[in-house]
Write a structure and sequence with these properties.
Layout lengths: L1 E6 L6 E6 L5 H10 L9 E5 L2 E2 L17 E6 L4 H14 L20 H17 L20 H4 L11 E6 L7 H6 L1 E9 L4 E7 L2 E4 L17 E2 L2 H8 L1 H16 L18 E2 L14 H6 L10 H9 L6 H30 L16 E4 L2 E5 L13 H21 L5 E2 L2 E6 L2 E6 L16 E6 L4 E4 L4 H11 L4 E4 L5 E4 L6 E4 L5 E4 L9 H6 L12 H25 L2 E7 L22 E4 L3 E2 L5 E9 L19 H34 L9 H10 L7 H7 L12 H26 L7 H13 L13 H6 L6 H4 L2 H16 L7 H4 L3 H12 L1 E4 L36 H15 L1 H6 L11 E4 L2 E3 L6 H15 L3 H19 L4 H14 L6 H18 L5 H16 L3 H19 L6 H14 L3 H19 L4 H16 L3 H19 L4 H39 L29 H6 L10 H4 L4 H8 L4
Parallel strand pairs: 1-5, 11-27, 14-22, 23-26
Antiparallel strand pairs: 1-2, 3-4, 3-5, 6-7, 7-8, 8-9, 9-10, 12-13, 13-16, 15-16, 15-29, 17-18, 17-21, 19-20, 21-22, 24-26, 25-26, 27-28
């Protein structure tokens, strides 16, 4: 990393920045644009040693650039484009620019709660240090673990609105400049209305900005005498308006107090759209807002019109020989892909809203195609009857999804010479829209009448082409997919050999490039599912590439093992080398994993010395890509002719069938076993569940099969209850996905203004039944009259009808029967509400929804100003004194008005007005950075090998690569920061860096993944552990509380990982010496652990151990002995008497028992003494036999299982007797009372 100084032409005169030597000067430029102290600069160049620097050069490519070097910033002449961008930047800074014109803008996007959580943690720390008993001393005070989770707990406070600095800023009525004045340098004519009520006409000139002589009645763009002028419009406005300067200064001060990551706008990612949001009330009168599109695209809109295909494909052709070339290429590809996805989403929304004319308006709606902003659009439906035999619209929707997956695979494979189309799928308002970059010449027929498709099936597979020019490239793709070269037949029964599926096509573009299209069947059909599970909506179900890959790896392992044993029997050693059949050979020791294998070739090498000194012959076995491979075209209607072809085809069918069986017989049982054995955690929500299943090669259509394969905890007591909880998660995902399909069918043909009514009715029918068992919806009469041709069928559906639709979807798609009254018995309203809203893109009003009649009669809304109840579960009470009295008065008023409020309660849980917005669900094919992942993996390996200095350097380099490729705000950058924080946590003297990286991971994660995402929960917990390890337990507790609240909303109570979270909170409280509260959290963790893992599990024993220690710290020695005795018994029975855990528990049990006995004896002595004194006073003294001498203090305590480093306070408090006093064999069977009697001689 380099520290550089940048000299500025104006105040503050210079700035210092830290950059990587591999970054470009354009990265420095971007940093200057984002810094609050240099926001005035937009049109400038960087100079070094008197020479102007190229923005795209790397720092280490310029001689003389070193640590502490100085660059100079020179202001440049404006162009019309630069001037427009400068005005937009100024509007953005002062809060005039908005996204209200953006078709895909979300409400309350990218909210973050981290800074407010940290502030609350520091407040608790201050309260504790002051020692005021009237104040709350830690974040868990008053926390009710059993209280129902609420949305108000997790919704972050909205960011403060930008103060109004101007009334308006935009193009004036005199814009654009005439030709003669453009020649003089005039670029834009602006009009500004200040807060003082003054109107200024400003001319944007190539040299900067100045006040002109123009007015509303007179045009004179020349500079006004003695008027201000500046290179930056921001500087000029500060000179013209004192109120502007003061408001801007206060806003910049506010921004300076906040973390920059909460302010930055992402360049390569979209801010997360939450499922609950606030309506946008922050409207400022600004007529110039309508000009934003003009400022953005120019008068001819050329700035926003692009040749997407040429941009993307020419970027793919960029050189990639060096690291610098790879960085630049990956960076540009990622940026272009994001820009395409954003433009595609906007176009799709306009198309669904019927705001874009079709190229073929005479066709049916589903068959129409569109060309908008240089992007080709079509619907994911069978408008042309292409998939009529396969399942119609259902098959078409599935096919486009699989095509996107295929494009993503080939894009990530990055085969040089073959070009996939940039593809994006947008799901919006029940419709699926496919957006692709047009292939050059796709609408043009060749002069010779031949087809542009030169590889694969043409015209419904009647004609087959297999151009030799395409064959090498398709073989590279086939080798990675484990596909074999196979024979297919055309309509004339002529045989052709293809490397990929018949449906996968190669197209020769008019630009000379070789395109690969129609990648929806790159793996074989899942024949076992289709044959055994009749009634599926379509017959195009294919296997996942991960399933084929895992099957192939299993075959390779078996083959390697067999070959090894064979040569071992011959007294030879064997070495395996993978040699690609389609690329240059590469040598690898692949005893476990490689690519594919063919018939091996063996070569003899030098002899090796065996264990007994004898010489052994070493055999090298090489294999390449086409031994264990599958035919993607089996079961697709191909009819072989010759006997040899039939025999080979039958073998191919058997192979494909074995892969299909592999999913159900191996992948699913392994998946469940890994959940059971703790290799995988129980997913937190449906998104996590889907990702895990896909990564394991299991299609989501197998959710029903996964449920059937989960053993019942009730039938087998040895099965932990966590599988029952996992079963609930899987069942919920079936309900969510079935409901999603049912709702999409209901709303796909509805006008967007009618959809809120349909959405509210369906949500009431499945989520609000306990509140209103017979919900009804009344569509606005004006809408009904406006759309007479639209059938409002949804309004006539009863709750039972809607539930039946969802049940049918579950039965058909997942082969699972939800049973009777599933909506009342199996629905978890809050969790299902969130999951279903996210999958549909619904944004509901941020308030508490009454899912049953027992809910509060007062619905707490989250207003824009952030008003909340003084104390809700998840927030500590911050007001004392008079405010508390005021709050109690308010509560009395609420109680008095309860009857009136009940009457005002809504008839149903949801209303049409509650649905505020619908955002498009975007699925893209963006390539991940291979270089950044390689760097972080290399750093991890180096640290594991003891090369810390090299490892740390590689980790920092990987972080720089992530930020260069993805930008500062991106989900992948959040994951990189999280990985770095976990790696750094294992290094000495790196706690501060661990906290810093974990904190950035949370901030970026909240803004790009969502404040309520499962990943964000884990990021919060990781940061909490880092803060605790860094000695900041108060903030750590506040973070745990935040994570716990989110966790309960997204997955409900009783998740197995709650055990660890509760335990961590207890440990943090213990470190603050809050022993009573710590014990409560340990006991809560123990109770949950017993419920989930069983009372005799090792996990439960460990928590018994910790609870015993917590009881010692609260002076409950009797209870501590009981808990430690339970721990010892379980450890002994489950792990054996010789296990370290058992031995430790036994030592503790001895010492705790001795302490308890001593305490009991002291109590008995005291009581006896009192009795003697009373007898003497009453004249009835009797001889009392002494119990015995007081025992001495116990020896130092040993370490307890799973609680290293937390026992010093326990050891200080423990009192006991020498170990020989009480035999270990007796302590596990005798009570404390019996032991006291025995020692006293009375037993």
């Amino acid at each position: 990393m380099l520290n550089l100084t940048v000299k500025l032409p104006h105040e503050p005169g210079s700035i210092k920045i830290m950059v990587s030597k591999h970054e470009t000067f354009n990265d420095i430029r971007q940093s200057i644009l984002d810094l609050p102290s240099t926001v005035q600069y937009t049109c400038f160049s960087l100079w070094f040693s008197g020479s102007k620097l190229n923005d795209f050069l790397e720092l280490d490519s310029v001689e003389g650039i070193h640590n502490d070097a100085t660059l100079e910033l020179h202001e440049e002449a404006y162009t019309e484009r630069e001037a427009r961008l400068h005005v937009l930047k100024v509007r953005d800074i002062i809060g005039l620019r908005s996204s209200k014109n953006d078709a895909i803008a979300a409400l309350s996007p990218g909210l973050s709660a981290l800074e407010s959580v940290e502030v609350s943690g520091e407040l608790f720390k201050t309260n504790a240090s002051e020692g005021d008993a009237s104040k709350v001393h830690h974040a868990m005070s008053g926390f009710e673990r059993d209280a129902a989770p609420t949305l108000t707990e997790i919704f972050p406070q909205p960011e403060p609105a930008t103060p109004q600095c101007l009334k308006s800023l935009g193009l004036s009525m005199w814009h654009p400049p005439p030709a003669n004045l453009r020649l003089r340098g005039d670029l834009l004519y602006l009009q500004v209305h200040t807060l003082e009520g003054t109107t200024f006409h400003i001319t944007s000139h190539i040299s900067g900005f100045y006040v002109s002589n123009s007015s509303s009645q007179k045009f004179d763009p020349s500079r006004k005498p003695k008027s201000s002028a500046a290179h930056s419009l921001l500087v000029l406005l500060q000179e013209l308006s004192p109120l502007f300067a003061s408001q801007l200064q206060s806003w910049q001060t506010e921004l300076g107090r906040r973390d920059p990551l909460t302010v930055y706008t992402p360049t390569n990612a979209m801010l997360a759209a939450p499922f609950i949001a606030n309506p946008d009330h922050a409207l400022i009168t600004d007529i110039s807002r309508t000009q934003e599109q003009l400022l953005l695209g120019g008068s001819d809109n050329l700035d926003t019109v692009r040749d997407w295909n040429e941009d993307l494909q020419s970027t793919r052709e960029m050189p990639r020989a060096t690291i610098a070339e790879r960085i630049l290429r990956e960076r540009l590809l990622n940026k272009l892909s994001f820009d395409f996805s954003e433009a595609a989403a906007k176009g799709a929304v306009h198309i669904v809203r019927e705001e874009v004319p079709a190229l073929n308006p005479n066709e049916f709606r589903d068959a129409q195609i569109f060309l908008y902003n240089g992007i080709f659009f079509s619907f994911g439906a069978d408008g042309m009857g292409t998939f009529e035999k396969e399942g119609g619209d259902y098959a078409a929707r599935y096919a486009v999804g699989k095509d996107l997956a295929g494009v993503k695979f080939v894009t990530q494979l990055d085969v040089e010479g073959i070009y996939p189309l940039c593809t994006v799928i947008v799901d919006y308002c029940g419709r699926r829209v496919v957006a692709q970059s047009p292939v050059p010449g796709i609408f043009r027929q060749r002069e010779d009448g031949t087809h542009q498709i030169v590889y694969g099936g043409v015209e419904e597979r009647k004609i087959i082409a297999n151009s030799s020019a395409f064959k090498p490239y398709f073989e590279k793709v086939a080798e990675s997919l484990h596909l074999k070269t196979h024979t297919v037949w055309d309509q004339d029964n002529a045989p052709f050999e293809l490397a990929t599926s018949l449906e996968t096509k190669g197209l020769q573009g008019t630009d000379g490039r070789k395109y690969i299209i129609d990648l929806y069947r790159i793996t074989p059909l899942d024949i076992e599912f289709l044959e055994l599970e009749a009634g599926y909506p379509h017959n195009m179900a294919v296997l996942r590439t991960e399933a084929v890959d895992e099957w192939w790896r299993t075959q390779i392992r078996a083959w390697v093992s067999e070959e090894t044993e064979k040569y071992k029997a011959e007294g030879k050693e064997v070495r395996f080398i993978y040699k690609s059949a389609t690329a240059q050979s590469k040598s690898d020791d692949v005893a476990e994993e490689s690519s594919e294998a063919t018939a091996p070739t063996t070569t003899e090498e030098e002899s090796a010395e065996g264990a007994n000194g004898e010489k052994k012959e070493v055999i090298t076995v090489s294999f390449n890509g086409f031994k264990y491979a599958v035919n993607p075209d089996v079961f697709s209607g191909q009819l072989p002719l010759t006997e040899a072809d039939k025999e080979e085809y039958a073998a191919d069918e058997a192979t494909a069938r074995s892969v299909a069986k592999f999913v159900k017989t191996t992948l699913i049982p392994n998946f469940i076993d890994d959940i059971l054995n703790g290799v995988l955690s129980v997913p937190l929500d449906g998104t996590q569940l889907s990702k895990i299943m896909h990564k394991r090669g299991i299609n989501l259509r197998y959710l029903g099969a996964v449920l059937d394969a989960i053993p019942s905890a009730e039938a087998n007591s040895k099965i932990p209850k966590k599988l029952s909880l996992f079963k609930v998660m899987v069942e919920q995902e079936i309900i969510v996905r079935s409901a999603k399909h049912a709702i999409n069918e209901l709303i796909r043909d509805l006008p967007t203004s009618v959809i809120p009514y349909a959405a509210a009715h369906v949500f009431n029918s499945i989520l609000g039944l306990k509140y209103n068992s017979s919900p009804a919806i009344a569509v606005d009469e004006g809408l009904s009259a406006l759309y007479p041709e639209v059938a409002m069928e949804f309004a006539r559906l009863s709750a039972k009808d809607i539930q039946q639709l969802i049940s049918s979807e579950a039965k058909n798609r997942f082969r699972y029967d939800l049973g009777e009254e599933w909506a009342e018995k199996k629905v978890r309203p809050l969790q299902l509400f969130r999951e279903l809203s996210i999958k549909l893109g619904f944004q509901w009003r941020a308030k508490e929804y009454n899912f049953d009649k027992t809910a509060s009669v007062v619905t707490a809304k989250i207003e824009d100003k952030g008003t909340r109840p003084e104390k809700v579960n998840g927030e500590a009470a911050k007001k004392q004194g008079k405010n508390r009295k005021k709050h109690s008065k308010q509560q009395l008023v609420v109680k008095e008005d309860t009857a009136a409020v009940k009457k005002a309660l809504p008839a149903t849980t949801f209303s049409a007005d509650d649905l505020l917005n619908i955002v498009p669900i975007i699925k893209d094919s963006t390539m991940k950075s291979v270089l950044a992942e390689e760097a972080i993996e290399a750093g991890r390996i180096s640290i594991m090998q003891g090369q810390r200095e090299i490892g740390v350097e590689l980790l920092l380099e990987s972080l720089s690569l992530h930020e260069q490729v993805y930008g500062i705000l991106h989900p992948e950058v959040a994951r990189a920061y999280s990985q770095l924080s976990m790696i750094y946590s294992g290094l000495d003297d790196s706690q501060a860096a661990t906290v810093e990286y974990a904190r950035k991971a949370v901030l970026i994660g909240e803004r790009t993944l969502g404040f309520d995402s499962a990943e964000t929960v884990l990021l919060y917990l990781n940061l909490a552990l880092a803060e605790h390890a860094n000695g900041n337990a108060h903030v750590a507790l506040a973070l745990v509380r935040r994570a716990y609240n989110i966790w309960r909303v997204i997955c409900g109570d009783g998740h197995p990982d709650f055990v660890t979270t509760l335990n961590n909170a207890a440990v943090m409280l213990q470190s603050l010496s809050v022993f009573k509260d710590s014990r409560e959290w340990f006991e809560a963790s123990l109770e949950l652990c017993e419920n989930i893992f069983g009372p005799k599990s090792v996990s439960t024993a460990t928590l018994y151990f910790q609870v015993a220690q917590a009881m010692v710290l609260t002076q409950d020695s009797h209870g501590a002995v009981q808990k430690m005795r339970e721990a010892y018994t379980i450890f002994r029975d489950e792990l054996g008497a010789e296990d370290n855990n058992t031995i430790e528990a036994e030592k503790w049990l001895v010492q705790l028992t001795q302490s308890a006995v001593q305490h009991a004896r002291q109590t008995q002595d005291a009581e006896a003494k009192k009795a003697r004194q009373a007898a003497i006073v009453n004249g009835t003294a009797k001889s009392v036999k002494p119990v015995g001498a007081t025992a001495s203090a116990a020896a130092n305590t040993a370490k307890a299982p799973s609680s290293a480093g937390r026992r010093s306070k326990t050891a200080d408090i423990l009192n006991g007797v020498p170990a020989g006093e009480i035999r270990p064999s007796s302590i596990n069977t005798k009570s404390i009372e019996d032991l006291v009697k025995y020692i006293g001689g009375s037993n």
